[in-house]
UniProtKB/TrEMBL annotation, chain A:
Protein name: Iron(III) transport system permease protein
SUPFAM superfamilies hit by this protein: MetI-like
Pfam families (UniProt xref): BPD_transp_1
Keywords: Membrane, Transmembrane, Transmembrane helix, Transport
Higher taxonomy: Bacteria, Pseudomonadati, Pseudomonadota, Alphaproteobacteria, Rhodospirillales
Cell compartments where the protein resides: Cell membrane
Membrane topology field: Multi-pass membrane protein
Record family assignment: Belongs to the binding-protein-dependent transport system permease family.
Annotated InterPro entries: MetI-like, MetI-like_sf
Start and end residues of each ABC transmembrane type-1 domain: 83-281, 360-553
Transmembrane residue ranges: 29-55, 87-108, 120-143, 163-184, 216-240, 260-280, 311-340, 360-383, 395-418, 481-498, 505-524, 536-561
From TrEMBL, chain B:
PANTHER family: PUTRESCINE TRANSPORT ATP-BINDING PROTEIN POTG, SPERMIDINE/PUTRESCINE IMPORT ATP-BINDING PROTEIN POTA
SUPFAM superfamilies noted in UniProt: MOP-like, P-loop containing nucleoside triphosphate hydrolases
ABC transporter domain mapped to chain residues: 3-233
Keyword Nucleotide-binding: yes
Protein name: Iron(III) transport system ATP-binding protein
Length: 566, 335
């Protein structure tokens, strides 16, 4: 048993003066600051904007406070339609993603099909690009002037529900696969050995052991997909066409019609389903991972042709489709006029939009900032939390996982309300790259935080105790025990924040200014302006940067592990 | 220096983990805290190390109150069950860590590391990483790491539990040897009575947060004072007073005064002599061969008794035997 060292509350039954272990001053100061700074930042850059947007949603255009904005919403047929559309496309995407996601995860984790590495790599592709790149690729392939329409001589209409569904599935599938795969990995070979000995057939084992063991994983994946889908902006704006969803509705209300109050009200509306989804997902995740046993042996798959051959074909088709969509974008960026004139050219790489490639450099700076600030704050927070009394730790933990329930669009909008107020000290930040970096960090705060918590759990308490007993002070213990164990986690969190910041569109769409334009926004503007080939070229550049970052992370992790093994 | 523990109280949310413990560890003494899991022995060790606060009582090292001294300033050495070597450091770096913290000169550290590697009989592993060593080797290195800073007290938290039987026996002998040679007072937590008997100068037998008995290994084995100690330190025949009065009256004179049910006679199995006699009162129920000893279950004067012999008693199950117990073979324990 590992005691939460030094945090056990003293309770004396018979009124004796408790002998607390007095921790040295430097230790208390350090851990106090570790928690205080990130919490203050969370309040300033998350709670405060969120509170502001709630307040603004009740501020009526005519002045005064009331439910006017909400009533206006429900009177507008457009909003109700957007709600219905969002729910419809969210549900459909979730259903498709669960079926396909389970299939791929099962094929990779529990069968002996060849090409697993290819499948995993193909599924990682959508994570390297802004979501609208998938929409872009689909339009290149299946759009009115797409490859397929051109070959068949007809004019397919992909805009609207079908296009959005496919794009969302491609975008959300990798995340679903990761979660289901993790759930499948949790099993123990001995369950199957026992069932085998008792005479269960493969199908009985699948129904009786495999499925029940991943049900929380499936639930969890379902909610993640649903949340991602109904809050995604990039795909909706590129391939949604006239099919309006909540995400595009907010954008139109705010940037199109300057109705901030109604925009805020739609934002609050978007907060409800994601909040519920995130909450259920958390509960499900805890149930799922609460059953893990340390001594479990992973099941070793064997080759079953009846199962593996069809799975192989289906999985490969899926992986190849994803590759095709992304590859089409790359290809379209280097041909004269897709899909009619396919001769090679680099002319689309000279961007005609004002600013040219400046947004890419701004994106790099913003992403590096978000990753650097974020990793430092999260590390400090998780480090300090372990030494806090359980009550405080629990409250801070709750605050730290809250941001995942807030869609990027809502967060971005709330930043306008909170920081675009002349006369307040926070107004100085408005329009700066720093605020964009902070917005991106808090958008992905929860995932980074949870990764950091998991990493910190791997630091053996006995090692820290050993260092303390040998006379090590706080900084010693930190440098010699905690940081070495945490290096892979720190790297993962840094690159996660960096890559997400490079590709996200939804939060920062409201915050960019001409001087701080970002790469993903530029792709959208190019697409809107009809420069689709240039949009493809710009997307390619983003993907190149993010892929380079992903490779850098792999390299760094390999280096760390090799050094350890040397 | 000696360690004195006075009236130490520790509770977890109202559950009393250590109930006013009093204990002294003398200079050069090897003390084993022995007891079943949950008896509070590890809690006591962690409090002594400074890794856990306590509610009330005193902790004095050479007369100095340790209450306000954090773990890092106590200058103790500790070895955990899980080895807990720093994975990112070589063996030499692990052993020299405490000295590096104390800002010892580099050549002095190197010399000390070499000296300790010789002491633990692993002279050639200085540049290896912990994962390149076997469990037994890692635990030796952990011991060397604890010894490097000349600790005023060594704390061993079940250091042998994670090892194979053979390695455990070797390392046990080595720990004993090193401790004798260096004369550093040592406290070891264990749940293995054999380990406690072979290593300790003084065994502290604990149960439910209380010390049941403190004494030399001989004391605890031959003269247990409570039923729990008699039971925990090897197997025994626990005989109620009323039965002893009928069946073995010659054991009665040594019985302390007290109510009929307050004390029981504890007779170790090897003190029960068994002789095959035709028409004897006892019956052999069964017989187990354990290599160096043979264990017999007997039925005698209405009770089942356990006996052990080193020689072949020359009996088979069902055989009639005579049973005898010397008057000094019994210890009276509190029931």
């Amino acid at each position: 048993m590992t005691m939460p060292a030094l945090t056990v509350p003293d309770k004396t039954p018979n009124k004796t003066q408790p002998r607390r272990l007095r921790r040295p001053m430097d230790e208390r100061l350090l851990y106090g600051a570790c928690v205080l700074v990130p919490v203050v930042a969370l309040v300033l850059f998350f709670l405060l904007p969120l509170g502001t947007i709630v307040w603004r949603s009740f501020m009526e255009e005519a002045g005064g406070v009331g439910l006017g904005n909400y009533l206006a919403l429900f009177r507008a047929p457009g909003t109700l339609r957007a709600v219905g559309n969002s729910l419809a496309v969210g549900t459909a995407t979730t259903a498709v993603c669960l079926v396909l996601g389970f299939m791929v995860a099962y094929a990779v984790q529990r069968t002996r099909i060849p090409g697993k590495r290819f499948v995993s790599a193909a599924l990682a592709l959508p994570l390297l690009a802004p979501s609208l790149v998938l929409g872009l690729g689909l339009i290149f392939l299946l759009g009115r002037n797409g490859l397929v329409s051109n070959l068949l001589g007809t004019r397919l209409n992909i805009y609207g529900f079908p296009g959005l569904l496919i794009a969302n599935v491609l975008y959300a599938l990798p995340q679903a696969v990761l979660i289901i795969q993790a759930a499948l990995r949790q099993s123990d070979a001995r369950y199957y050995d026992a069932a085998e000995v008792m005479g269960a057939t493969r199908w009985q084992q699948f129904v009786g052991i495999t499925l029940p063991n991943v049900k929380f994983g499936l639930l969890s994946a379902g909610f993640v997909v649903f949340t991602v889908t109904i809050t995604d902006f990039g795909n909706a704006v590129t391939i949604g066409g006239d099919f309006s969803v909540l995400a595009t509705e907010i954008y139109n209300q705010v940037t199109g019609q300057m109705k901030f109050g109604i925009g805020a009200a739609v934002g609050i509306l978007l907060l409800l389903p994601t909040g519920v989804a995130v909450y259920i997902e958390r509960v499900a995740a805890q149930r799922q991972f609460g059953t893990a046993s340390e001594s479990a042996l992973p099941p070793v798959p064997d080759y079953v042709p009846m199962r593996d051959v069809p799975l192989f074909l289906a999985t490969m088709t899926l992986a190849l489709s994803i590759v095709a969509v992304v590859a089409t974008v790359l290809f379209a960026s280097v041909v004269r006029l897709w899909p009619y004139r396919l001769d090679f050219t680099l002319k689309h790489y000279s961007i005609t939009l004002s600013g040219g490639y400046d947004p890419l450099w701004t994106s790099l700076a913003v992403s590096a900032g978000a990753a650097g600030i974020g990793t430092a704050l999260l590390f400090a927070l998780v480090l300090g939390l372990r030494r806090m009394p359980p009550g405080v730790a629990k409250a801070v933990y709750l605050l730290a996982v809250l941001p995942v329930g807030v869609p990027g669009l809502v967060l971005g909008l709330s930043y306008i309300f909170a920081f675009n107020l002349a006369g307040t000290p926070l107004h100085m930040l408005y329009g700066t790259a720093l605020l964009l970096a902070l917005c991106n960090f808090y958008h992905y705060h929860t995932q980074g935080f949870l990764t950091m918590v998991t990493g910190m759990r791997a630091v053996p308490p006995a090692l820290e105790e050993a260092a303390s007993c040998l006379g090590g002070g706080v900084l010693r213990v930190l440098g010699d025990v905690v940081v070495p164990v945490m290096v892979p986690t720190l790297l993962s969190v840094f690159f996660f924040l960096f890559m997400r910041s490079m590709v996200t569109l939804s939060a920062i769409i409201f915050l960019v200014t001409p001087s701080t334009n970002l790469a993903a926004v530029t792709v959208m503007r190019l697409d809107e302006a009809g420069f689709v080939s240039q949009a493809a070229a710009f997307s390619t550049c983003i993907m190149a940067v993010v892929a380079a970052a992903a490779l850098a992370m792999r390299g760094a992790l390999a280096l760390v592990i090799r050094k350890k093994a040397a | 220096m000696d360690l004195q523990i006075k009236n130490l109280l520790k509770t977890f949310d109202g559950f009393v983990a250590l109930d006013r413990i009093n204990l002294t560890v003398e200079e050069r003494e090897f003390v084993c805290l022995l007891g079943p899991s949950g008896c509070g022995k590890t809690t006591l060790l962690r409090i002594i190390a400074g890794l856990m606060p306590y509610d009330a009582g005193e902790l004095l090292m050479g007369g100095r109150d340790l209450g306000a001294v954090p773990a890092r300033d106590r200058g103790f050495g500790i070895v955990f069950q899980s080895y807990s070597l720093f994975p990112n450091m070589t063996v030499a770096e692990n052993i020299g860590y405490g000295l590096k913290i104390r800002k010892g000169p580099r050549d002095r550290i190197a010399a000390r590391v070499t000296e300790l590697l010789d002491l633990i009989k692993l002279p050639n592993v200085a540049d290896r990483y912990p994962w390149q060593l076997s469990g037994g080797q890692q635990q030796r290195v952990a011991l060397a790491r604890a010894l490097a800073v000349d600790p005023s007290l060594i704390l061993l938290d079940e250091p042998l539990s994670a090892l194979d039987a053979r390695v455990r026996a070797d390392l046990r002998a080595e720990i004993r040897d090193v401790q004798r040679r260096l004369g550093i007072p040592t406290i070891m937590v264990t749940h293995d009575q054999e380990e406690a008997l072979t290593l300790a100068d003084k065994v502290v037998c604990m149960n439910h947060g209380l010390i049941e008995q403190v004494g030399t290994p001989q004391d605890l084995y031959l003269r247990p004072r409570t039923r729990f100690v008699a039971d925990f330190m090897g197997s025994s025949n626990l005989l109620p007073t009323a039965w002893v009065r009928e069946a073995m009256p010659h054991l009665l004179p040594s019985r302390p005064d007290g109510a009929e049910t307050a004390y029981e006679a504890c007779v170790r199995p090897e003190r029960i002599a068994v002789a095959p006699v035709a028409g004897g009162e006892g019956r052999v129920i069964d017989l187990t061969f354990l290599g160096n000893i043979r264990r017999l279950r007997l039925s005698w004067r209405g009770r089942e008794l356990l006996a052990e012999t080193h020689q072949d008693p020359g009996v088979a199950p069902g055989a009639a035997v005579d049973v005898s117990v010397d008057a000094d073979a019994c210890a009276w324990v509190r029931a």
